[in-house]
Write a structure and sequence with these properties.
- Helices cover 38% and strands 25% of the residues.
- By secondary structure, the protein is of the alpha+beta class.
- The chain contains six helices and twelve strands.
- A five-stranded antiparallel β-sheet has the order 1-12-9-6-7, covered by helices on one side. A five-stranded antiparallel β-sheet has the order 2-3-4-5-8.
- The chain is globular, with a radius of gyration of 21 Å.
- Helix 3 packs across helix 4.
- The N and C termini lie far apart (76 Å).
Length: 273
């Protein structure tokens, strides 16, 4: 009887291994599809020539994604953090990408707040958000910017995710609106606020998801924290853009230590020269 039970367990374990491999292979293929929606390095280098993207999915696929495009004389870039991570987050990222592309391609609008307003309506309608409050948990946090490099004017609008500008050793934070993309309940139509800034040479612009600051690690296994993240950006802002990315990645690696990554991580930085 014991031998029979052992053989059955071994057979079940073997079946589970096959199923696990099939699921993992499917997710790895989904990763290729998801990566195809991300802007290629060649496009980023052309539209944002002095920039970096630090992108670290928690799992094979990610709920974070970034956007870089150009319309008229404005370069657009965004950091988007979808609800969840892994497979559910990846599904949301595909929904978000397609709707954002549709909003930008079908309109002449380049104002970040108006783009987020239309994206908000699109996500809400696609996910059938109405009066059901529970459904409103599905959505996205976004920091969306445009830069006119001929005038160095930057525009920003955000759903929770803020904008940081480091200038002359000081960090200026502009907070996003305190509601996500996808919250569109009943007749309540919240509008995003547009912010305009005049940049100057030497400024560093940062947008990001909350994954970096929320990572556990260090000697006491605590969160990195947003204050620590701000200080780190201040410290590295005088470095070259490549060195900034290296320091952020190395600091994150050292902080994590043996602990697992807890969320998708995305940081996008631009240095004005």
């Amino acid at each position: 009887e014991v031998v029979r039970q052992k053989e059955e367990i071994e057979i079940k374990n073997s079946e589970l291994e096959v199923l696990f491999k099939h699921v993992t292979d499917s997710i790895r293929y989904a990763k290729r599809i998801q990566e195809a929606i991300l802007p290629p390095d060649s496009l980023i280098n052309r539209l944002l020539p002095n920039s970096f993207v630090l992108y670290r999915p928690k799992d094979i696929v990610s709920g974070d994604f970034y956007w870089v495009d150009k319309k008229a004389n404005k370069t657009m870039f965004a950091a988007i953090d979808c609800t969840g991570h892994g497979v559910p987050g990846a599904f949301m990222s595909i929904v978000g990408y397609n709707l954002l592309k549709q909003v930008i391609d079908s309109n002449t609008v380049t104002t970040p707040a108006l783009i987020l307003d239309r994206l908000n309506e699109g996500v809400s309608e696609t996910l059938h958000h109405g009066h059901d409050v529970a459904q409103a948990k599905d959505g996205m946090d976004v920091a969306f910017c445009t830069i006119d490099f001929s005038t160095l004017q930057l525009e920003y609008a955000g759903a929770y995710n803020p904008l940081y500008i480091v200038r002359d050793g000081k960090l200026m934070e502009t907070k996003g609106d305190k509601f996500p993309i996808g919250l569109f309940l009943g007749k309540e139509k919240k509008k995003f606020v547009n912010h305009t800034f005049q940049l100057k040479r030497g400024d560093c612009v940062y947008i990001f998801s909350d994954g970096y600051a929320d990572q556990f690690g260090g000697p006491k296994g605590k969160k990195f924290m947003i204050s620590h993240f701000r200080n780190l950006l201040l410290q590295i802002s005088d470095e070259t853009i490549d060195q900034q990315k290296y320091i952020l990645a190395k600091t994150l690696q050292d902080w994590c230590g043996h602990l697992d990554q807890v969320d998708d991580i995305l940081v996008l930085g631009v240095k004005i020269e």
